[in-house]
């Protein structure tokens, strides 16, 4: 019981430290929605609050040392991000070096068509077999990569372009509602929340709205309601009274990271990172010999073999994959990673404020923790930059005057 109390103390201190960090950023910029809002909205419940609830019921949790290492890593990443974002100076050359194109209606129409077209094979599954969206998430783990990930990426880009277009507010609302419903049809709660994060990021970074603590609290309450409803809709065969227990289970990636600290003896020295960033970029349709036990999946095969061989999704290890690679050096590695993300988040925020470009906005979202490509592994910097270039190309077609300028803009 004493050890359990110490573990709860570690998590509770980490919770207070991260909340204090968020308050510091919010008061400094006069808005409670800012560069770490997406991180705060996901990590605070999943890593801290749900884990405290779990520890209050647990009988055999991980070691105190494991909790100290992992929760120190979470805080160090956030701290280095904030320090880099708040105190770094952005060279003017990075802001003025290249200008992306503004949004166009043709780009929005193209992305909408691509999203719907790529989703058609999955929609056929829904229509023929009566799958619920969560069933779709399970059965599309293998063989549907282009349809599943391509359609949700195109939908996210469509939402971004619509927000930047000078169209009516009602059309933007309809586009947002469509994207939320479309994300729901993919069977992942994370996809739905990305739509909300994109919207909040747009209000903060592009519109320059300063959101006070009362309105932020209201947003938080709405987010809790949406989360509970999504859990209920996507959890097959359980009652509403079991939803809270299911939500608490989503803190397992913090526990799994602690488990790696306690159990792992053979370290990979960057091998997990390299495999995650190599094999995730190889489509199985072309590279049929692509292994399934690469990177973090190899860890899942070792520690959760039943889930791995079912091929219906495996438990995540959170920051534990960095421990598997770098041992105790996880702390300086994540400190550098946080500073890197914080600095470039500030760079692209500055560019968004100057140019109002959806391409810069995509990069800002990426460095603020809002991923457009939900593959679940790898550091997808180059892929997000490629998406920014795709938007640039689509929005540049108007310059070629292939179609009437009135329609394009």
UniProtKB/TrEMBL annotation:
Signal sequence extent: none
Coiled-coil ranges per UniProt: none
Keyword Transmembrane among record annotations: yes
This protein's UniProt keywords: Membrane, Transmembrane, Transmembrane helix
Positions of transmembrane segments: 6-25, 37-58, 64-86, 106-126, 146-165, 170-185, 191-209, 216-238, 326-349, 361-379, 385-403
Name of this protein: Oligosaccharide repeat unit polymerase
Organism: Uliginosibacterium sediminicola
């Amino acid at each position: 019981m004493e050890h359990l109390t110490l573990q709860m103390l570690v998590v509770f201190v980490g919770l207070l430290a991260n909340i204090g960090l968020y308050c510091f950023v919010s008061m400094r910029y006069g808005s409670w929605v800012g560069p770490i809002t997406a991180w705060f909205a996901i990590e605070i419940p999943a890593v801290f609050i749900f884990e405290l609830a779990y520890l209050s019921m647990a009988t055999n949790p991980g070691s105190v040392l494991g909790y100290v290492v992992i929760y120190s890593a979470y805080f160090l990443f956030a701290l280095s991000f904030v320090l880099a974002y708040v105190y770094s100076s952005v060279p003017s050359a990075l802001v003025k070096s290249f200008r992306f194109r503004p949004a166009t209606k043709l780009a929005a129409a193209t992305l909408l068509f691509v999203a719907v077209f790529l989703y058609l094979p999955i929609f056929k599954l829904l229509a023929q077999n009566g799958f619920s969206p969560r069933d779709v998430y399970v059965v599309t783990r293998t063989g549907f990569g282009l349809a599943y990930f391509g359609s949700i990426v195109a939908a996210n880009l469509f939402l971004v372009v619509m927000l930047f277009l000078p169209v009516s507010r009602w059309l933007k609302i309809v586009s947002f509602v469509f994207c939320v419903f479309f994300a729901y049809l993919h069977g992942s709660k994370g996809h739905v929340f990305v739509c909300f994060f994109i919207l909040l990021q747009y209000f903060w970074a592009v519109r320059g709205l300063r959101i006070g603590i009362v309105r932020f609290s209201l947003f938080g309450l709405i987010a809790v309601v949406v989360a509970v409803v999504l859990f209920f809709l996507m959890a097959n065969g359980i009652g509403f009274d079991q939803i809270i227990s299911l939500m608490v289970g989503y803190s397992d990636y913090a526990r799994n990271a602690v488990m790696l600290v306690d159990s792992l003896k053979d370290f990979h020295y960057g091998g997990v990172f390299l495999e995650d960033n190599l094999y995730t970029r190889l489509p199985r349709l072309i590279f049929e010999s692509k292994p399934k036990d690469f990177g973090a999946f190899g860890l899942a095969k070792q520690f959760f073999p039943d889930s791995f061989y079912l091929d219906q999704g495996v438990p995540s290890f959170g920051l534990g994959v960095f421990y598997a690679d770098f041992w105790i050096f996880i702390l300086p590695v994540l400190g550098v990673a946080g500073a890197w993300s914080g600095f470039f988040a500030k760079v692209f925020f500055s560019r968004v404020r100057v140019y109002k470009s959806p391409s810069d906005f995509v990069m800002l979202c990426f460095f603020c923790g809002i991923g457009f490509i939900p593959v679940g592994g790898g550091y997808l910097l180059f892929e997000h930059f490629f998406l920014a270039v795709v938007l640039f190309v689509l929005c540049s077609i108007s310059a070629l005057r292939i179609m009437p300028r009135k329609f394009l803009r």
